[in-house]
Amino acid sequence: MRYLTVDGMLSGTGIRDSLIGKYLDPNEVGFSSELVRRIEKWVIDYETAHYRQFDDEAENQRLDREGIEIARQVQSQRLK
Fold first, then answer.
1. Which end of the chain, N or C, is surrounded by fewer C-beta atoms within 10 Å?
2. pLDDT truncated to tens, each residue of the chain (80 aa)?
3. Which residues contact 36 (CB under 8 A, 6 or more apart)?
4. Residue-wise burial string across 3-38, b where 16 or more C-beta atoms lie within 10 A, e elsewhere
5. Residue partners of 70: CB distance under 8 A and separation at least 6
6. What is the pTM of this model?
């Protein structure tokens, strides 16, 4: 069993197996191509916010909301 975590860590892929502490390639987890693209874009946007020192509160909130929606989609696709 995998316990997946969605995170925006700079060195990560956006999807981490929490039990083993290893990042997973979203393409290899079995997600739809739409979800993979969404994760990849979110990770890039999160990285950009990091380099800007998270100075845009509205952008930070958008990234948080997007991460939550990605997590919901991950959960939904993993339950199928």
1. N
2. 789 999 999 889 999 999 999 999 999 999 999 999 999 999 999 999 999 999 999 999 999 999 999 999 999 997 65
3. 26, 27
4. ebbbebeeebbbbbeeeeeebbebeebebeeebbeb
5. 6, 14, 35, 38, 39, 42
6. 0.91
Instruction: Yes or no: say if 41 and 32 are a contact pair by the CB < 8 Å rule.
Output: no
Structure tokens at 45: 């946007």
Q: Is 23 helix (H, G, I), strand (E, B) or coil?
A: strand
CA separation for the pair 23, 6 (Å, rounded):
10
Q: How many separate domains does the chain show?
A: 1
